[in-house]
Each structure stands twice: as C-alpha cells, then as structure tokens.
Amino acid sequence: MLNPGTMLSGRYEIIELVGSGGMSEVYKAKCHVLNRYVAIKVLKPEFSSDVNFVTKFRIEAQSAAGLSHPNIVNVYDVGEDNGIYYIVMELVEGTTLKEYIQAHGRIEPMQAIDFAIQIAQGLQAAHEHHTIHRDIKPQNIIMSNNGTLKVTDFGIARATTSTATQAVTTTVMGSVHYTSPEQARGGYSDEKSDIYSLGITMFEMLTGRVPFNGETTVAIAIKHIQEEMPSPKEFVPEIPSSVASIVLKCCQKSPDRRYQNMAEL
User: Full-prediction pTM beyond 0.90?
Assistant: First the structure.
C-alpha cells in the first residue's frame, strides 16, 4: 500500500486509497503537471515481480487506453516507477451500480432501460475496438454524480485480435454470478459473452437479485451452463413482457441465440 504524499514518476501525488481488487489497488491522486485529480490503479507488490501479471496489467492498460467514450472510464497514462506499475485513469466521483442497487432495491423498468442503454453504448465502443470486457457486473459500472454510467475495469479484457492476450487469459475469470456459460466452461468468449453478462446485470437491476445462486462458485457456474434462465417477471410480475424478453434473449445459453452485437441490443 502506498502512503499519502508518495510521488509516482515525479508527477502523481498519492492522496488516499479508494479501492482494492484482486490484482491492484486504486488511489485518488493529483497530477501536478495538468493540475487535476485522477484515479491511479497500482499493481500489488506481490504481483509486480511476476512477468505474467505484469504482462496482463500492461495489456489492460493498452486495451483500455485505446477507448474513448462518455460511457467508459478514460485511461490517461500508464507507467512504472521503481518497480511500481500503474495506470492513470479518469477520476469519477460517484457510486457503483452494485451499491446503488443495494441502497435502492430494484430499479424501475424505464430507469433500468436507460442504465442498460448507457452500458451497452460503452461496450459497443469497446467492441468496435476489438476489446471484450469479460467481467461485466454492477460492481464494474460507476454511476457518476451527474447520472452518467461508465464502464470501468477492463482488467481481464481481451483484445480479440491479440494472440498475446489470449495466452494470458486462458483461465476462467470474471465473477461467477454474471459469467456466461461459455466462460464458465473455460471456452472461447467473444462480444456475445458481454451481452450475456449485461443481461444478468439487467436482471439484477429489474429484480434486485441475481438469477442464480449457490453454495460455491462451481455450483453457480453449473447453473449458468445447465439451468433454464428464469424470467424477471417471476420475481416482479409488473415488469413489461417486452423488457423481460430482452433480458431472456441476452441470456440464451447458446451465443448464436443472443443479440449478435451491442448495436442490435
């Protein structure tokens, strides 16, 4: 963990820790060159000596840095300072979609549709740059204070044209409650895997719960592969049938039966 006041590359002053994930920690920092506040994702020390993790981290930065869209958290810079690897990102003041659902319960259909469209627009921009997110979930959607939703943490994103990325993403990743059947099997995943995960996210927005639960991650993964997807109307009957149909089409077991791209969704 970096202490407040630490300077990275003589430019970024660490202010405070704002979050922590499996591979990295996120800090609020001040860029003294452009005089603005930023978010800095720093690779945890135990991984910085691991060539594979450093490679993953750099791939994350490269795939995300090529994306610029109002519904994606922008990446400004990537660097290394005395073995500290970091990514500099737009600082978004707000809350995660997960926290919003936990605080408010289920979201009314019209607002859920607005949220889903914003997420889909961000992902469409990423897919057009051959970048798959592979870990879409409410925890990775930030709601800014002005109401804009932004997709963040392309941490296990795969550039579909990059064989180098495929080599470091062979294990099943992502969060099991939102993972597509093909990801749960450890098979090939593409843009339609993000469509499935967005469908599960829509289900949670509309109902306040996820469709599949279990005692273990394996049990939940098996449900994604084998069990029929429940309609959100089973839990909230007043959800419009048309909206429920969109969720169910996103969450078809076979990728070929889902929407074929984000624009279509």
Answer: no
